[in-house]
Fold this sequence. Notes:
This protein has eleven helices and eleven strands. The chain is α/β, with parallel strands linked by helices. Strands 3, 4, 5, 6, 7, 8, 9, 10 and 11 form a nine-stranded mixed sheet that branches. A two-stranded antiparallel ribbon has the order 1-2. It is elongated. 32% of the residues are buried.
Amino acid sequence: MSTYLPTLKQLQYLVALKEHGHFGKAAESCFVTQSTLSAGIKELEALLDIVLVERTRRVVRFTDLGNQMVEKAYRILREAEELSEMARSAGKPLSGDIRMSVIPTIAPFLLPRLLPQLRKERPELKLYLKEETSQAACDSLHHGHADCVLLAQPFPCGDVESEILFSDEILVAFPKDDPRDPPVEVDPAHIDETQLLLLEDGHCLKDHALAACNRPELRASARMMGTSLHTLVQMVDNGLGLTLLPKMAIESGILNYTDIVARPLKSDRATRDIALVWRKNSPRRSEFQLLAEIMKGAQNWASKAHD
């Protein structure tokens, strides 16, 4: 085996430059000077006798081989990190750092219920949270920026394992004085597509809501305007249309102080599964399974308290 191998530090510099596209910002993210980062990448290129990055005054451009090296570097850094994670998790589970990405249609509604219980049961756990859309969260997971992801399924997140925590019902939200006088259960066929307000692209709840209705034409006709569930609620409350909301948001009080009523959908597909997801074959698999069980218990307790 060659003694001249890239160092982890050099690979970290390369990945940081790819992510930030700027030597100064990449150096700042690695807590080194720009000259140190630039020299580290030049040493890597000299070691491998290839050009990874084309440098100009304004643009940092990776060569085709450089892009391939970055993808390999992601995997090497992730596996190196998992070596220390393996040792730590074998000692005392859920006692170190966990970086969790959470999607925006879950984070503000579920975390306030779960975190107090988690702090109580695992006080030595340091949970670092980041709110991201589903695709961004899955990318963070596979690039090693997140250890696990809290998201809604179904969603194609790649080669992962998951534990379903619970099912979350999707309901129809109308203005209280809506002339259609919503029934106890709303038939998806009766939803007026010209009045339907949905989240913009990038939010998996939009796809789950449309799947619940099982009306393909809604994707083209619906007025997809909202950047968040709170924005959709405000639009509905101002008489601009109707929308579809997850039950967890309603239970968390998103409709408080509004003139909006919510009714169940008459559909056997009007649910999404809330799940904890991690990379397949992760050495921390047992930790994440334990974390999922704690989350299930906290959610059950919170649901009973709400009832």
